[in-house]
Amino acid sequence: MTGFSSPCGACKFLRRRCVNGCVFAPHFCHEQGAAHFAAIHKVFGASNASKLLTSLPATDRREAAVTISYEAQARQHDPVYGCVAHIFALQQQVVNLQAQLESLKAQEPVQGYTNTCSVSSPEEDSMKAKVMACQT
Amino acid sequence: MTGFSSPCGACKFLRRRCVNGCVFAPHFCHEQGAAHFAAIHKVFGASNASKLLTSLPATDRREAAVTISYEAQARQHDPVYGCVAHIFALQQQVVNLQAQLESLKAQEPVQGYTNTCSVSSPEEDSMKAKVMACQT
């Protein structure tokens, strides 16, 4: 319950009584919560979302509610790629940034720059490894 | 059907008859498909996954099947953040790469480098804008 006997946003959307201890209540307020929960209900299903939150320690539920809400809204916005479109965009952004750093390193011999102008190769290699590890 | 009357991986997992025109059949093979579909069934639910694929043009369903499979597996691996953890990691990687480029630009006056050693400010600003736009 969110107080004053008003149902939480999830129970308001589901048109059901919001009982004490409702797993959604702390994360979906009466007003905006219903709209946010609508996407979760359509993409994951209320039952699956409830099972997920219930399976987590109370301290982790807020973050989980935020991330499934984000994933659900992204899937509604882009039914084919969902939030994976965001991952692809960020991976391309990382590749572009690394290309700029590689380009600067390649210019060093020509420009006769010292290491003060170069980027850290170990760090760059580490980033490359992260990008490779990020490939879905 | 996947041929030879064997059910697709989704129908095999759901232990149901795989009919001609099964929306899952083209994307979940009899062998590995069942394991991949298990995560989708647990996270999204078979019905929600079926509704999503059915709502898309046939040409988009393969990509959608791949992305929901990825999201489902990521959520099983990390129940709190799911694939959003991947987004956070990539965003941090972008910030770190941009910091390296900023550092190189800051060194220019000291080193007396010409623009041949500088990175493109407009591109960098554009990337910053993308990162901001990517904030969840």
Describe this protein's structure.
The structure is a homodimer of 136-residue chains. Chain A has helices at residues 9-14, 32-43, 46-54, 58-77, 84-111, 121-134. The relative contact order of chain A is 0.08. In chain A, helix 2 packs across helix 4 (58-77) and helix 3 (46-54) packs antiparallel against helix 4 (58-77). Chain A is mostly helical and 136 residues long. Helices cover 65% and strands 0% of the residues of chain A. The first copy, chain A, folds into two domains: 9-77, no CATH class; 84-135, no CATH class. Chain A contains six helices and no strands. At the A-B interface, helix 3, helix 4, helix 5 and helix 6 of A face helix 3, helix 4, helix 5 and helix 6 of B. Chains A, B: This is LOB domain-containing protein. Chains A, B: Pfam families: LOB. Chains A, B: It comes from Triticum urartu (Red wild einkorn). Chains A, B: Residues 6-108 form the LOB domain. Chains A, B: Belongs to the LOB domain-containing protein family.
Short description:
The structure is a homodimer of 136-residue chains. Chain A has 136 residues and is mainly α. Helix content of chain A is 65%, strand content 0%.
Identify the notable features of this structure and list them briefly.
homodimer, 136 residues, mainly alpha, LOB domain-containing protein (chains A, B), LOB (chains A, B)
Tell me the layout of helices and strands.
2 copies of one chain form a homodimer.
Chain A: H1 9-14, H2 32-43, H3 46-54, H4 58-77, H5 84-111, H6 121-134
